[in-house]
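This section describes the prediction task in plain terms. A model, or a person checking by hand, is given the sequence of a single protein chain and must write out its three-dimensional structure as a string of tokens. No templates, partner chains or ligands are provided. The sample shown here is typical of the held-out split.
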Amino acid sequence: MFSTSAFVAFVYLGLVAANPLGARSSTFQVHELRRAAPQGFTQVGPAPAEQTISLRLALAQSDPDGVIDSLYKVSDPDSASYGQYLSKDEVEQFVAPQTATVNAVNAWLKENSLTSKSLSPAGDWISIQVPVSQANDLFNTNFSVFRHTETGAQTIRTLAYSLPEPLQGHVDLVHPTVSFPTSFSLKSSSKASQVAFHTTVEEGGLKAVCSNGTTIPCLQELYKIPLTPAVHKDNELGVTGFFGNSAHYAWLETFLEKYRPDMNPGTNFSVFGVDGGDNDQNYPSVSEGELDIQYTVGLATDVPVTYYFIGFDNQDGDLDGFLDEANAILALDKPPQVLTTSYGFPENSLSFALTDKLCRAYAQLGARGTTLLFAAGDDGPGCGNDDGSVFEAFFPSNCPFVTSVGGTQGYAPEQAWTGSSGGFSNYYSRPAYQEAAVSAYLKAHGKDNKGAYNASGRAFPDIAAKADEFIIYAGGSFYPIYGTSASSPTMASIIALINDRLESAHRPQLGFLNPWLYKQGYKAFTDITTGNSSLQCESNGTAHGFSATKGWDPVTGLGTPRFDKLLEVLHL
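The expected answer:
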């Protein structure tokens, strides 16, 4: 489940004249600051001067907006460039730093006796190792030790930092500085105490396969997903995993024997390690890895599945491997056609500058033809403050360059799942592709929860799929789990199978979905019009949420998919 925290405003200043830290040199300019540490953190004292810390510098890119323009050109079905995805080299030409930036940064490194390590294929991220005392001098700041009150964990951060004159205009941000560690895992778990969702069901196929939980046969019947095997071995479906979420080969085999007896039970998946991750079979599972792998391998028949498994050796600080994974995939000559991720952060736990860097890395992947799907979250509208009167958006679903997947429950008909996160970003304005759909929602329902969200923000989720009672096999038993972390791999499996059909028709994969979804693809989705999201932020407080409505809504987006209708819309 996504964690939430109270809103703390970040200020991204760039070049300004004031310096509240008391500049050690008149050439410093404050670059980022935050007004206070996040809720749950207390300042202990100055960080030890001799302690070495790792800092990452994001260098200014040559043409960052060029990547975004290209992404929309290749993703808009009305564009003459639709489906003409960029190569690795073409993307890197946009994001690689200019020679002047490289020279300025290298001169600054040399002047301060520093060596750097490149962290990205285009060279726009580097890292340096420095003692705290030198870091304070280099960035005119005061790094301090902060303690997380709930866990007792300590971290070194600052509330503001400045850039020296040689780096101004050449460095976009220094990290980790003003962003604090946050719990990011969307943890699906058995919820025996959860009230079962009941609905009147039709006799026949759906009742026969869905009445005992969400399984592969249930999803196949509900969304008309075929048993037909994929035929193209270069059509890859990627799944993001993290340490502690190992996917076990033997458990997958047992799962397939029960729910896909028509498949070879030995059907397997590949593993791509990031930051030392290796999907060790001797480690226990907390179910997320089993869920994501069992339902992608089990639904996307014979589509090659790769588990992008992230370990502990993170090079991206508080991003916990998210940026490392993006950079690792960007370094590939051929990235996966689809990538599903069931993890995220509260939007306000990261500065906008840091958020935007990762969001733009996703834009690079989209420009190369990768469909990026993210679970919307399991905390309903989120708690932006203690009483829930202000809602909380989630990252990466708030990013305009990815597709966010909300959740439904039941099956005849489907209704909005109460835990499905959705809402409006405080960081990103509403993209043009969803202007009509979201404006229609606001016109009809904008008075609901007024003042609790930024009505002009990027709205999410974009689409939805079932999120309730997914039966997985782990540790010797079958049991149910819930969450949009089940919805995203379900949708990813459908897109992977569609991509296989497109390749057979000598057509490009779907890539970044959203411009197509809001213009054409919505016709293949079932509009969910009943149910609501709900979250009670205080133990004795009032529950808040959004309702599913006709058209797009901030619980189920444009609705849930039908494979047969997708084929029709795509003329396959």
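For orientation: The CA atoms of residues 253 and 265 lie 5 Å apart.
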